[in-house]
Amino acid sequence: MHFQEHARKIRHLKVDTSGDPITSDILFVLQLLTANKPLLPGLKAFKCMGATEAFIPFIPLFLSPKTVRIAIDFATGLPTLMVASITSRLSTLCPDLESITLSRLPRDSVITEAVSEMVLDCNRDTLRRFLALSPLTAEAREVVYQLPELAELWSVILERTPLPPVALPNLTLINLEYGDHLDWLQGFRGAVFGGLESVCFRCESEQIGDFLGSFESVTVTTSIPATLSRFIFRTSRSWIPNCRSLLQFTQLRHLIIEFSCGGNCSSRVDDNVITDLAQAMPKLEILQLGHPPCERGTGVTIKGLIALACGCLDLSALRIHLKLPVWSRR
Length: 330
Hints:
Blueprint: H1 2-7, E1 12-16, H2 24-34, E2 45-51, H3 59-62, E3 69-74, H4 80-93, E4 99-103, H5 109-121, E5 129-132, H6 138-144, E6 152-157, E7 167-168, E8 173-178, E9 192-193, E10 198-203, H7 211-219, H8 224-227, E11 230-234, E12 254-258, H9 271-280, E13 286-289, H10 302-311, E14 317-319
Parallel strand pairs: 1-2, 2-3, 3-4, 4-5, 5-6, 6-8, 7-9, 8-10, 10-11, 11-12, 12-13, 13-14
Helix pairs in contact: 4-5, 5-6, 9-10
């Protein structure tokens, strides 16, 4: 009775099964205590770090219809069907979810179906954060890119098909991982965004192509150039980005483009590129082009640094390749 009295008052619960494992015996006792009712009937937020195979079956024990925020970080090497089973049930257990974060999801068609089922069953008028790096079925994509209250989105696009018409008036952040094509970008053409502030893209294809040029050509038809303050692109591949394609994004504060600097470095950023960026983006606070610089003898000289110093007065973090004069290398 004392336990149940305190359990009703708990609103936030964080479980780390990797650092402080809860034994199955304890979980079975708690399950018996609740008689198939929520253990924490007033729980608003549930966060589980390193969810293990022994703990996952008991996750529903902690959730209730009042739970609106769920974050689960799955341990590696879990059975795919187990992860899929709990994932597909989340929106049924918690019908008014506002935030869903699922980390380290296995990449499998069964997971795709489970995550998509969860999306289709969720309350589309309450969901504000959907952070799950997993592909979705075509039907689930239609739903996700039309959610009226969605503010943050993480997703994966692998199919060679365009995105459905995009209407996300409240979206402020989007994080997309994609495969070896750019067909999906056409979904951004004429898309409805109210105030998109941050975009992050990741691609590990051997042929990235002119992603920046393609992104610029489709977003010019939207409000993105006037609202975007953070642009990130990451790849571990060798790549030569056309940074000038981003010159229309004059409100950028963070510009981060990472590509391989190992072996035969692909960096082609020079003084002209840096000068153009400094003139177009006076609000820049963070500028990173490439991975930590290698010993390749090309890059930006003192001329480019002066342009940055004069044009970007708020610059606080800088990572670019420098071409130092011979005397300074001694």
